[in-house]
Amino acid sequence: MILSAPTGGAVLGSPTIGTVRIVDAFDPVSPGLTLLTPINNQLSIEGNGPVFNIKGTASDNQGIERVEISLDGAAYQAIGITLASDFRTATFDVPLTVNPGIHTILVRALDTRLRSSAVVRRVFTYKVERSLAVAVNDLNFGGVSTGFVPTSTRNLGFLYSITAVPKAGSVFDGWTVSDMAGTGVTVASAELPRLNFLMQPGLSLTANFRLNPFVPALIGSFEGLVLPDVGQTPGVETVGHLTATVSSKGGVTGRLRVDGSNLSYTGTLDNSGFTRFGTTRSKILTIKRQGKADLELELKLDMTGASKQVSGTLTRKSNGTTLTVSKIAAKRSHYSNALRADASLAGAVSQRYNLILPAKAQVPVLATNLYPQGVGIGSLVVKPDGTVSCGLTLADNTVMPTWAAKLTEANTLVVFGALYSSKGCFAAEVKLDPTQAATDAAGLDALWCRPAIATSQWYPAGWPTGLNVDVFGSKFSVVTGSSVVPALGAEDLANGNVDLTFVGGLTPGIAKLVSVSVTDKLTRVPATDASFTAAITRTTGGVKGTVVHPATAKAVNWQAILFQKAGVHRGGHGFFLSPLPKPVTGLGESGAVLFKAK
């Protein structure tokens, strides 16, 4: 058809010629491909050059659209082909220039419906040899795989593996690589003894060794508290506990307890003390938690040995945004069966310390009816090998699970408990020091976090951002023929020799008298006063009983513990809770108990 004599002002342009192919949309047949060269495992040496011919034919019942190749896993690329006049067959013969090494090509043909032929795979090699230089910084400290030192002939582009082997008393200290380009070596992989690399021209490697820095004075078990960094708000998300065990080869394992999680971790210390995690040897361990923010953990061992601790940072993040930052100071356990604690601390077999946790004013100020005014109680049992077991009952009658710890060289230990179904916690560092005037152990500003508990009669709002509580301890002993009550006078059935008082807890105060014998038998004074009970557990110094609450005429339980050391804390201290009404009002309080010789 020819257009001519346009009207209406139309202008005809220069005619062009095109080819239109009609494609059978229902063509079910895939094309075929024959690859003539390269043959599988074909080898070309340096003298023959780096060019391989990609030669073959393709055919289809309808028509060939193109032929494509993929080199060494790259995306498919079309190559030049010569099509027959009917488009049903094509030939190709394309030169391919490659770098030295082993190569793989995938070849396929596509028909006009873009159906693919079966993919043909060929492996071929361009072999070029060069010299590899390998050195060791000090042969007294270690060596490498045989056949590498000082030089060897290697094929460019081929993958090799070499291993550095330290001698006894030494450790590997990283590879020095003359040029990492094209080798596949990374900064992280060069830190590992086994090095995998692709040979490159002019490549040289040096295996570095040093004396083992993980000497007995640095390694061992460490534990410490996770506490909010400066400016961060205390709470269950920022307060926790961490352990770390460091081996003589620099391995580190441990557990992290925080925000309701109890997580294990494994890493490897580098020779500067940083913990590396995973195959990437990252200095940051990212912990994904379902339904909670991610945690990022960083740890470093003090390689100088001055602080004898593993320090670190714990960061909470959500979608890359930092929510909170906490600091970690895990101190090294010091004592063992071979290095025993002094008898003044641990006795010959064990030493019990009775603990009291008095209420204290809070900063910022918190009204006294909003947190317990009773005295929490507990105990430590210290053994000569430095192991410690701890039990606590806090002043809201929360019992902390029994805690096991170890003494540091400074005679400190950490106490940690996940409380209230892991929605709260208690964290303290306590120092044993019997040389102090009024205590044998003390830990100032322990942190006690309690969540809001709407159904609780006592302090339903809780203190999610924490209360500060001091921990004071006194060594406890039992002497045959003497009462365990400190400074006790003679038994007095008429006037009593112990004052038992109850203060707070929605009561104006209750005062009772007790007579205690040298065998710690308690008698109420007068004996007819049935409004209270009291008893001493002689082996532990625990004191407990009941007392009738005057406002409700209901009996409530109370408990205390004896503090034997002379000074401001001498006597028995404890707590009681105001009665539980029906219905619950949420106005209950914890009051203080004092059991003191007259």
Which fold name is given in CATH as the topology of the largest domain?
Answer: Porin
Most strands sheet:
9 strands, antiparallel
What is the global morphology?
A: elongated
How many E-type strands? 41
Distance between the termini: 128 Å
Oligomer classification: single chain
Per DSSP, the total helix count is 1
Number of structurally distinct domains:
5
Beta-strand level of the residues, as a percent range? over 45%
What's the arrangement of strands in the largest beta sheet?
A: 21-20-19-18-17-25-24-23-22
Estimate percent helicity. under 10%
Query: What's the CATH C level of the largest domain?
Result: Mainly Beta
Named at the architecture level, the CATH assignment of the largest domain is Beta Barrel
* SSE-based structural type: mainly beta
Mean pLDDT: 95
Uncertain stretches of 5 or more adjacent residues = none
* Radius of gyration, CA atoms, in whole angstroms: 40 Å
